[in-house]
Amino acid sequence: MLKKALFAATALFALAGVSHAADLKEFRVGILGGENEADRLRNYACLADHLKTEFGFEKVSLFPAADYDGVIQGLLGGTLDFAELGASGYAAIAIKDEKAVTPILTTVQKDGSTGYHSIGLALKSSGIKDIKDAKGKKLGYADPDSTSGYLIPLTQIPKDTGMPNDKYFASTQFNGGHENNLLAAYDGKVDIAVDDSSGIGDFKDGYTSGTFRKAVDKGTVDPNKLVEVWRSPLIPNGPLVVRNELGADWQAKLTDFFTKLPKMDAKCFAAIEGGDYQGYTKVQPDFYNAIIDARKAAIGG
């Protein structure tokens, strides 16, 4: 009798979860830190409108977290339904709970690749032309959960310098996201900033996408005053992820919606992605295995 009662209670709980997902009235979108909050909310407003129209949500809530970890914890704790993450941010979730979210799509660059780069930028006036000129200088990181703004420079720059970053540079520091990190280099607070970039297109445009491109488009930096002094190997583009508790049906619906978005509203697509991309393509969790392994080895969970 007790077993039957427990089974019935479990079944009711499961059904309640299915019903909640099926009758979703509010959709909660996490937005990574890295750009100022007002710009992030403005860029994502069109997406909220499209989601309401497409799915009839009563409310689409946008949560621009102060840092990457805010979105990571929101997805792990079930207070967010969807987000676009960097590869290292997804790795952080997968290491803690591989069943928390499912990656559904990733971006495709204009050259057809599904990867991007971490680039090191410095002021031309600094005289730094290459990472090997930067010994004893200050290095700026973006965020501890950033792929291009921390994990990859942490593990890849030493391959070019022959020394760990904390030994090679006079100091390293986090600057509160990608935009702040780039501005720290531009304002001379650090000598080099590492940030995300497609690495394709014209440097004078800030390349085709990434933090540098956004800053050039907004007029907050003059590319003629900057120089690229380091570039990483190709990094897997980060995924759009859906909280698994929503179920396979919502994952399929959202996959279809976002796949169509670039053609449905190219301006909105460019706004949320911050640059010039071809579109989205489906992605599987194993696409990020190398980043998960790198994160485990370098910084743990």
TrEMBL record:
tRNA processing recorded as keyword: no
InterPro entries given in the database record: PhnD, Phosphnate-bd
One family name in Pfam for this protein: Phosphonate-bd
GO terms of biological process kind: organic phosphonate transport; transmembrane transport
UniProt keyword Signal present: yes
Range of residues in the leader sequence: 1-21
CC terms in the record's Gene Ontology section: ATP-binding cassette (ABC) transporter complex
Domain of life according to the entry: Bacteria
Keywords: Signal
Family according to the record: Belongs to the phosphate/phosphite/phosphonate binding protein family.
Protein name, as recorded: Phosphonate ABC transporter substrate-binding protein
Organism: Rhizobium favelukesii
